[in-house]
Amino acid sequence: MEFVLTLVVRVEKRARPAQTDALETAARAVLAILADERSYGDGEWADAMAAWQDNRIRKIVKRARGAEWRRAEALPGITVRGYGTGAPAPADAPVPGADDAAVAEVRVFPPTAVDAVPDDLFKLQVSGTDFEDSGELPPAEAGVPVLWLNPELEMSSGKAMAQCGHAAQLAWWGLSAEARKEWEASDFALAVRTASPEHWQQLLTTNLPVVQDAGFTEIAPGSRTVIADHPQLRR
């Protein structure tokens, strides 16, 4: 039986998140559910999480607004809010309000069988998740994990959000328990950036986790989409 992890991004009529904020928030949402105590041991989501992680870590990103979003928030899951910029916020940054138009909000739900996605999630649209950044992004902060996008691929924002979630998950799997705790303590600080062609080729020579897409949507099978560059994985 195939399982799928659903992520829902909030997209109100007059409030669309910035591209990079949406990508970073989606990746942080995946990390949040991986680290949640309900996802392992005797936790209520543990069996579903195990069944999902033992197979293809399929993810789907949908959008919601208004009443759709409120119904999604009523379902078991975790809502993660971004910081409205392309750079991670400092540890003492205030949590943005839900009415802040510049802030991404992504809710992640425990995996379900593909044919058992709750109706309130199943009915949501996949299309309409194309976002943009308003300006040039600052360099990623030193020491912060970076998810590097393949500069040669074009993906919708929803597709890229799922790929960044994959990359964050691969990085998580590669970390020690201590490194995982440190990342969680930072509120899963990370940055998403597009690599230059030269940097991408250099990254491919490392042993860093690489997302290789199955090619069911948008891009060719076997395409390498994101490389997870976590400092702890370079040691």
UniProtKB/TrEMBL annotation:
Signal peptide: none annotated. It comes from the Bacteria. The keyword ATP-binding does not apply. Its EC number is 3.1.1.29. GO terms for molecular function: peptidyl-tRNA hydrolase activity. It catalyses: an N-acyl-L-alpha-aminoacyl-tRNA + H2O = an N-acyl-L-amino acid + a tRNA + H(+). Keywords: Hydrolase. Belongs to the PTH2 family. PANTHER family: PEPTIDYL-TRNA HYDROLASE 2, PEPTIDYL-TRNA HYDROLASE 2, MITOCHONDRIAL. This is peptidyl-tRNA hydrolase.
